[in-house]
Amino acid sequence: MPTDSIWSYAPELGPAQGQDPDLTGYTVVASDGSTIGHVDRQADPHAMRHLVVDTGVWVFGRSLLVPVGVVAAVDTGERKITVSCTRPEVKAAPRFRTDSETLDPGYLTTVGDYYWALTRPGPPPGTPAG
C-alpha cells in the first residue's frame, strides 16, 4: 500500500516520523469537537495500522476500529488525538464486533474503504476503474 494510505499516519505527525508513542488511554476527539472515546489499544496486522477506540456509553458501550490515516493531530501533552471525521461519520463506520476482526484482512479492507471515502476524493486504492 502507498505511504499515504489510510493505514499510515500523515507525514507531519510524530508517529509517522518514527516516534510511535503508546497512545493507549488517549482521548479521541472528532473534527466537530465532540469526544468519541479513548484509545483502548493499537494494532498493526497486515501493515494495516489502526486504533481500537472504546466509545463508552455513546454507542451502547461498543468499540470502534479507526485507521491511523484519519488521525489529524496528536497532542501528547493533553493525551488527545483528533480525527478528521465527525462523530456521526465515525459512528456510521462498519461495526466492530470481536477482537478477531482486527486480524481479518477483509474486515480491515472494508473499514479502510469506508474511511478512505470520507477523507479522500475518488475511489480507494486497488479499486478497479469502471
Automatic annotation (TrEMBL):
Domain of life: Bacteria
Xref: InterPro entries: Bac_photo_RC_H_C, PRC-brl_dom, PRC_barrel-like_sf
One cellular component (GO) term of this entry: plasma membrane light-harvesting complex
Domain PRC-barrel stretches: 21-83
UniProt-listed GO biological process terms: photosynthesis, light reaction
Protein name: PRC-barrel domain-containing protein
